[in-house]
Specification:
The chain contains eight helices and twelve strands. It is an alpha/beta fold. The strands form three sheets. The chain has a five-stranded parallel sheet, sandwiched between helices.
């Protein structure tokens, strides 16, 4: 009798080059990942909806649509009608390697971005890191400083007022609310929310924090405290 195969996680691999798709799928299968091959954007969306994967490896250059369009569909903020699991991890792997390309992909909701050509061992390590972050246990309901955050429904309210947030704004808020009086450094937030490996010159954290502050408290801005030179915390001590 053959030994039972215990798979680590289910992956959708969206890559239009047939040889690359087959080779990568073979490697992942050998490393005990379940693989669902998706040579087109339509295949990727179908498998993400009905195949219940844990993570999507997404190329940006696809024959029927842009990979960014796939990502926008997956990260649709209206969770009441969303067809996709909000916990689905997404790693972009693309030949487009400029800073603007990486920032654009991460801002649209990717958990990580790896540039082709890449070392398979690095890709494997990043898959493991995203899966650990995405499935890290935590309370589904967080109450902090008058803010109510429901992780499962991805809803936020301040008192009786519902607050509509983008995917990254929600992730930033949920991270800060985990320890609402602690100051999170910019490096921590860029790593945990955007998947950046270094601070670089991006202003995306500042822009998202500013929008989040206005949405949570349009009048006074008492939430999302900027601790100059260090980072951010959600509420005062």
């Amino acid at each position: 009798m053959l030994p039972e195969r215990n798979e680590i996680a289910q992956l959708v691999v969206c890559e239009d080059d047939k040889a690359t798709l087959e080779l990568l799928s073979d490697h992942l299968l050998a490393d005990r990942y379940g693989v669902m091959a998706a040579p087109t954007a339509a295949d990727a969306l179908r498998l993400c909806q009905y195949g219940t994967p844990d993570l999507l490896l997404l190329d940006l250059s696809l024959p029927d649509a842009s990979g960014l369009d796939v990502l926008r569909e997956l990260r649709e903020p209206d969770r009441a009608v969303s067809r996709f699991d909000p916990r689905l991890g997404v790693i972009i792997f693309s030949g487009r390697g400029t800073e603007r390309d990486r920032v654009r992909g991460l801002e649209q909701g990717a958990d990580d971005y790896i540039v082709k050509p890449y070392h398979y061992a690095e890709l494997l390590a990043r898959i493991g890191a995203v899966l650990r972050r995405r499935h890290k246990p935590g309370p589904s309901l967080i109450l902090a400083g008058g803010i109510s955050i429901d992780r499962e429904q991805r809803t936020v309210s301040v008192g009786d007022r519902a607050v509509q947030l983008s995917n990254k704004e929600f992730s930033l808020l949920a991270t800060l609310a985990g320890e609402p009086t602690r100051v999170f450094t910019k490096e921590e937030l860029l790593r945990d929310v955007w998947g950046y490996r270094s601070l670089g010159h991006t202003r995306t954290l500042e822009a998202h924090a500013s929008r989040l502050r206005r949405k949570l408290d349009p009048e006074g801005g008492r939430f999302v405290v900027n601790c100059w030179g260090v980072g951010y915390r959600l509420v005062g001590p």
